[in-house]
């Protein structure tokens, strides 16, 4: 198995930017396929309609754009002033008319891409804070946006599934999730994809091994599905929350 790309290299950054732009196109296609009435239907996120998912993804673009602004100007510009501010921004977006909501989403995605294109190479290592308050180089916010786009397109509940995500996104997503579990001391499971050359995610000596296709494992680990995976310990557990 080849080593993962070094995130500090411009070529790796460009690869992730390309995945983010593909994710934007993926989300746009699914959104375009929804009627105005379907926007009011249920998403895969408990208690959220599809229009709330769209408002959230638009709000996320603006929040990550604020991190790009921080890196560009050197003036601290946080993603959200508070969790209450974040929730209020999503709520305000979700009650827009269908046309205004679609326009808000498209404008937010275009504005973020412009900010990324304008950011000089020497500013991508500037430290900023993510939504959990952790300090990260701003280049890491590209992947934050990428996974939001691909996962929340599935959450629109309109036919897209994890099987539609590129292999590189699925692999990196599983690495993120298992890494988040391990950081909290949950190392009891190892995930092994039956259709990937990757040698598995998690401790090789873990008490439980869960197997399935790369897409099914990612869907299960992200809390979106329980089908298609098998545990050598018996019944498939509900995946531990990762964010």
From TrEMBL:
Signal peptide range in chain numbering: none
SUPFAM superfamilies associated with the record: DinB/YfiT-like putative metalloenzymes, SCP-like
Record's keyword annotation contains Manganese: no
InterPro entries xref list: DinB/YfiT-like (IPR034660), Maleyloyr_isom (IPR017517), MDMPI_metal-binding (IPR024344), SCP2_sterol-bd_dom_sf (IPR036527)
Keywords: Isomerase, Pyruvate
GO molecular function, one term: metal ion binding
Pfam families linked to this entry: MDMPI_N (PF11716)
Residue span(s) of domain Mycothiol-dependent maleylpyruvate isomerase metal-binding: 21-156
Descriptive protein name: Maleylpyruvate isomerase family mycothiol-dependent enzyme
Biological classification of the source: Bacteria, Bacillati, Actinomycetota, Actinomycetes, Micrococcales
